[in-house]
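Our collaborator T.R. sent over the components below with a one-line note: 'Predict the complex.' Nothing else. No constraints on interfaces, no templates requested, no preferences about which chain binds where. So this is a plain run: every listed entity goes in together, and whatever single assembly comes back becomes the starting point for the next discussion.
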Amino acid sequence: MEVRRGSMKETVVIFKDVTKYYPLYHSFIGIKNFLFNLPLAIKELKRNKLCALRNISFEIYKGETVGIIGHNGAGKSTILGLIAGVLKPTNGEIIVKSKVVGLLELSAGFHPDLTGYENIILNGILLGMTKKEILSKVDEIVGFSELDEFVFQPIRTYSTGMLARLGFSVAINAPADILLIDEVLAVGDINFQKKCYKKIEEIKSQNKTIIFVSHDLENVLRLCNRVILLHHGEVIKDGDTYEVIDYYKKVFS
Amino acid sequence: MNLKESKVRYFFDLISELTKKEIKVRYKNSFLGYLWSVLSPLFTALVFFVAFKVVIKLKIENYVLFLISGLFCWQWYTNSIFASSTLFLNNSSLIKKVNFPRETLVYSMVLSDMFHFLLSIPVILLFVFIYRQKFPYFIFLLPFVVFFQFVFISGISLIISSINLFFRDLERLVIVFTNLLFYITPIIYSENMVPEKYKIFLYINPMAYFVILYRNIFLFNKINLDLLLVAAAYSLVAYFVGYKIYSFLRWKFAEVV
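Returned assembly:
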């Protein structure tokens, strides 16, 4: 496998035997419960862990569009968190070689009382652009979002669709070599969705890497050229989109 | 070199934008707007004035000036400290998704409160004028005091905001403790009125140094360099401890918010 892919392509993300546990805090709620069951509680504190990823290894190459699928709690979002660098693995090693930008959940980091324009600047900076960079891109972003004169209104007046368009437009225009997309593609009306897919195709053609987490198999089929199937924190299958999705449909549904 | 420069640039852009946001947002929907950052501490001062000057008849001259020269910087402290306990919780979606330096949230929150404090300084000067005091010439040293208070509050805020994610009781403790701290800080009374055997509480209380420094600048037209040095030392220690705790816990933020 290494030989087949390795020599030509450049790796951008490497997961080496990565294990991630989440400690379960607050399993004994309140001091009363804690004190009355002290020995048990301490034991619980030590043992109570949730295993999100178990010994996972994979490599992602430059220019790939990789879908990550699996049931709820399979560890998909944990993988994105680890790549984005907001989480640290319990064991194992993760190497990310280029700049990562994650697509935000709807309106994360947006402030309802600020205008769309102000939110674009703020969000762009939070996503890693300098003020200069974001100012040079702001017209493009406003144009993409199709918000027109609404960008000068506070975003609490926006509809859900408008918010989603705003968030998507900022993130998709951020300069990054790896783009993380977590289930936010179902935004706006059909025309806007088309535009988003077009933009994603454009990003793909620029030889950038996209990592896409979704339950929507149709979107995965449409966008990805490789799929990783997770189940209970382990990689069940990793390979060609059609093969993996076929397997997923057969085995899990 | 160039990369480092752009990183520093980015860090300052981030802080300045977040601070601007905080400042813009606070009074966005209120009619009186920024006036509130002056009015609300003034109303508090009025309450204390009635209680301690009119009712209890405390023997301190120029009491309103005396009061506000300590109260305004105290309000900066409490505003920031109370905001810090829920700071990371309120930004949970960002913390879960984006890998930006989280400490910038703390700095910008403290800076926006500092901005409101700075807005209230003209009010203090106005009372200097009303009470026909001399113009406080040492006001040119004010930036140093403000700077170290910023460092101090940032340190404490880093501690509280980080630990409160794991130990939510802290926010209750902070409220109780801050209330207590208010009365052992010489704001409504003068430090000279503290009995000798309780003076220790003045020495171990960093906020007491700041209050006395501000008051001496505005009211008595003098600067205590020794107090400034101690205050600076406290600030640096608080910041160092705060940053250590924050760096230690930072990696777990996304797991618990």
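Summary for T.R.: The first helix of chain B runs from residue 2 to 26.
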